[in-house]
Predict the structure.
Amino acid sequence: MAGPPMGSSARGAMAHPVSPRPLTVSRTSFGSVSRDSNGRLREVHDDKRGIDVQHRLNGSSKVSAVRADHSRIVAERGRAGYIARPYSFHGHPYYSRTYAWHGHIYQRMYRGYTFRRIPVEVYAPRVYYAPAFYGWAYYPWATPVPYAWGWGPDPWYGYYGFYFTPYPSYAAPADWLTDYVISQDLAAAYAAQQAQAQQAQQTQQTDASVAQPTGQPAITPEIKAEIAAQIKDEIQLENAEAQANAQGQEPDPQSSSINRMFLDGQSHIFIADDSLDVTDAQGNGCPLSDGDVLQLAPPQDPEATAGVLTVLASKGGTECQQGTTVSVGLSDLQEMQNGMRATLDQGMQELSQAKGIPTPPMDSSATAPSAIDATAPKPDADVDAQLRQELTEGDQADRAAAAAPAQPNPTSMLLSPFGGLSGSAMFVQDAEPAELLAAARRDPLYDRRRW
């Protein structure tokens, strides 16, 4: 099947996002429960435990909470969860996220920023390279070089072999980085899918809908070329940030965030790096997962709190189909860009050390620390234990939701994340009573749409 049209200069009528169908909310003795029009559980808000459990259309779930010390914890089986702690640098808000994955702990930094009234967190590298390194990573090599990744034994590679095929040789670093970014996303998608299937078996779920391979190659060379062009844009962006950092300046969130991508009049590529529910042109929900490729094309509604994108590639099954037009909230788009930039930083480090590939200019791959790192909180040493506890509490909240009798409120409906109330204004975003939402919004870390 031919893919949707691509190209940075394609323009059409202005794209306006579509609001999702509202959810029905029921009060319980411990909080509230939200269900969609098919009766599927979508969210549990547990006042007693102080947590939220978000259930996605593909059967996965995420547990999150904002705690008394203003830190935020986000946990999900099969994925790297994190604890985010706020701090300030030069009077600007930043957030340090301590991640844990299979016993490995690492830290990433994010700049707080508001785009179209939506609070987002913009990825900020902890280290930068010399300008010569970014130039080496941006421009093609003199001749293509063959490269063997060694993924053959990895289970994700066989599982998604219908979807992704790496290049046998590479003419430019951006092409190598393209395959690196895709591989990391697909490996994460496979790990999450396996954890989801195991959890469904343990809890005897009957409505978990894991996307199954369709057997049709989906990421074409044309799509990979679009991804490589986006990667080159991100390399240019980080080079500019590195030069500002050398002068003691912070990254500018207006240019580092998705703000630039909405304003420059060009098409941009996003790659999902998490499970995510989005809304199609008919208002129906469909899921995405790591490695699905989307394109944002101008012109976009300048006042909207969501972008309208085209799905260039998906894994089929129950996922949003290739060519579907979907609305994606700004905070979710920002997290996609964050994921690409963070994975790209990992890839550039590995690229500089890869065997059989042209080496970067001497000393250019030495790193300089980011100025924002100096005042950041220390990583949470016990993050792994805290994430496990959060998942346990999420399971308990789900069991309580299944067992507790509902106290229906027939007028309570969910506020669309793209604007506009459905039903009574007493209950608003993600099924929380208005007074709870108002209290939460006073916390600068609160942005439920990202969770």
Summary: The chain has nine helices and 23 strands. Residues 24-81+378-450 form one domain.
